[in-house]
Every structure is written in C-alpha cells, then in structure tokens.
C-alpha cells in the first residue's frame, strides 16, 4: 500500500537545507509530495541534493542575513511555483565550539554574528514569507529553535539568546498572522549528532558521543536524537494534521527540559 503523502501539492522553502536537520527535512518533505526549495550558502551540497532528488527540488543560494537574498528566494519560489505554503526558517550557527561558552569568554562579534544568522535570518525569512502568505490567506511558518529555549546551561549565552528570541518572534507572529489563516510554530531539538552544528567526528567518536547522549546526558534512555527525528516533527507541524496548532514551541528533547535529576541522584546515592 502506497504511503499517504502528507504535503501533496504544497510548496516549501527550507533554509539551511543543504546539511543536517535541513537536509533531512528536504528529503522527508520531498518524500511526502512537496515541491521543495533548498536555501543555503553551501552551494555544492545544496545543488547535489537537488540534482539527486529531481525536478521537484531546487537550490537557491541564500545568505539569510542578507535581506536582498531573502527577497530573491521568496520571489523566485513564487514565480516558479505560483505559491508558498511552508517557510521553514531552519538556518543556524553555533558561536563557539565549546558546548557552553562562558560570558567572560564571549566576544561581542560572536554574539552579533550568532544573532545575525539565527535570529535576524529567521525574522527576515518570516517577514518575506508573510508578505506572500497574507494575500493567499493561508500558510505555515516554521522555525528551528532549541531545547536551550526551555532549559538553561546547555548552550552558550549567545546561542541561547538567539533561540529564546526566535520563540518570542514565533509566538508574536502566531498572534498577528492567525487572522490570515497562517500558522507559526517552532521545533526545538535537544543535541543532534551528525549535523553541521557539531564538529566532524570519526566513527568511533560518533559512537562514544551517541552512547553519552543516550545513557549519560539524555533523559530518554535507549534513544539518540537524530536529524530525521527533528524533520518528522517539522513534517507534522507543516502538514494539515496540525491545522489548528499555532504558537507552539515543540520540544524534541526526550523530556530533558522537564526533569531535574538532582533529587533522584541524591536518593540513588543514599540507597546505594
């Protein structure tokens, strides 16, 4: 029996679509019938995915911090496909190779660059998507935020500030754009291995990191968060199955942000 295609007839833009969560989402949205436009600055990677997936997937060079690039991305997509149903503002960077950048070690330039890509880039994508979605009186705007928007101490301050702000923008837009039938939501993942956000690893290091995330760091034991898991959350929010969901920050974190392990650790130690 053929799989039901949840995005049949829809046109989607995915920023940061050449690698990591973005690339997984491109493949999944395409598999579910969407016409997908990959927007990225990684031209070789983005074009290779478009060439591999065929006629319903295209690549456009886009630096999300450049409003002219964003305008061109939106206008080219609408000129080609006649509509825009899903704008997934996923492009993002980390400002520091260290998982937790201390404030005294954070340069102003790092802060500004992180906010420029993560927040300003997402804001501009949403702004120009809204420009074409409002006359359509329908559409879905998505953002990639982070579990750092729900729990402190798991990222640098610059990264957390940018991702908290994205949630604020999404909630404000959900309030503003609902009158036009436009839904706005966030997907907020815990640490995802094998994305452009993490440093390159050998197979052995990847195995060690997966073991650590599954058994030591993560809350949901026996599971490791993959880019495909985040893509599936985005697919749900982009699909008509979520037709009355707006203003949601969907945490894909295995319950990490709702658990404080201190009491459990104390009890385990005392009973041990």
TrEMBL record:
Belongs to the short-chain dehydrogenases/reductases (SDR) family. This is Uncharacterized protein. It comes from Castanea mollissima. Transmembrane segments: none annotated. Coiled coil: none annotated. Pfam families: adh_short_C2. SUPFAM superfamilies: NAD(P)-binding Rossmann-fold domains. Keywords: Oxidoreductase. GO terms for molecular function: oxidoreductase activity. It comes from the Eukaryota. PROSITE patterns: ADH_SHORT.
